Amino acid sequence: MLKSFLKDLxxxxxxxxxxxxxxxxxxxxxxxxxxxxxxxxDYRKQEFCRKCGKFIYKENVGLLCFDCGNELxxxxxxxxxxxxxxxxxxxxxxxxxxxRRSLAAPMGQLMAxxxxxxxxxxxxxxxxPVPLAQGxxxxxxFNQSGLLARELGKWLKVRVExxxxxxxxxDSQAKKGRRERLYNLQGAFAMAFGQDLAxxxxxxxxxxxxxxxxxNQCAKVxxxxxxxxxxxxxxxxxxxxxxxxxxxxxxx
Length: 252
Ligand SMILES: [Zn+2]
Ligand SMILES: [Zn+2]
Description:
It is built from 10 helices and 9 strands.
């Protein structure tokens, strides 16, 4: 009671500066409202696959998710700022399809927090966004992963290079199964003309990790061209397939 009175008084004296870019509620912080920032803090504390960064809810989990247990990806590891659902999913949709480019700033900043809190990223030297196919780039006008990469570069003080190009449009990935996706992605990426990152430790940036096939193909091209190590970070990641297959999700 007293608390809410004080809050009202506080709001009256210091009106909220803006809206949360994720949920639309009033927000004091330009990064987001209290509720959303807490959600992202929770995601940073949640169990995750030590390879691909997918979220794992089970107790007594191993270090790897079901997919990585079957076949290890070529990148060293990846982390995600949040689980691909709710405001995390909405933010990416709004960035990609409703043209709200301003969302890239808080999204990139939150990804930077995940990177900074994880000591494994300490040695990274160059940031490389996962490229978009030319047709899609023309249509959308921007590469969402490129925008996120630029924000990350700003916060991590690391240079960003558009070192990869997409040589094949892999449009309907989402409708395909894992095996088909992998096949579909083969030869989809190449080094951009004049780019040489041999010997460097690279951070790949993508918007969402579902199976990790896209990041894996990008990592392959970089490693084939002499890159010393490929790490990755994504805005969102899915959940351990084991939990989806067996329905052993939290709260079920
Ligand atoms: Zn919010
Ligand atoms: Zn994994």
